Automatic annotation (TrEMBL):
GO CC, one annotated term: cytosol
Similarity comment: family membership: Belongs to the UPF0301 (AlgH) family.
Protein name (record): UPF0301 protein SAMN05421875_102208
InterPro entries associated with the record: AlgH-like
Amino acid sequence: MSFDSAPINLTHHFLIAMPGLEDESFSRSVIYLCEHSARGALGLIINKPSDITLKSLFDKVDLSLRREDLTREPVFQGGPVQTERGFVLHEPMLMDKAETDESAYASTMTIPGGLEMTTSKDVLEALSTGAGPRRVLITLGYSSWGEGQLESELAENAWLTVAADLSVIFDTPVPERYDRALSLLGLQAWMLSPEAGHA
């Protein structure tokens, strides 16, 4: 690929780690890309649960959690950057009676393709009352790439990419998400060689 070709935009795609990627944070990871532009990329790992449950996270920020469906859900390790900060990936929550497509929460990135990512506490407050988005994935930390960095890693065969399927994020058991993401490409883990092929 030459550098003057059109830039790729992998927003709302999964990055699937190739077997040769042995970095502790990223080995066998599936990352949902929230943003990808010429300036770089930002995403959340969706298949690396931490040992913290949502209930204990809410206890830490002095909120009760009145959503029985969420209390035992894990908080995920979203990536190695800002691991003390929470990131909430969720279905869009638009303002009531809003004439614009404005999110209901203060610090929200709207991801073309159907999700939002919120970093403000108001989304947790909504969840604590039993309201808020129905489907959520909460991470501590995120993954990021500087300008051209992700493109270089793709050229080095570190990642496979595929359009995101929300059922992998919200409906697939955590241990199955890597294989399920691969299956979107018609692949299984045993088909992948850890060696990058160079002619």
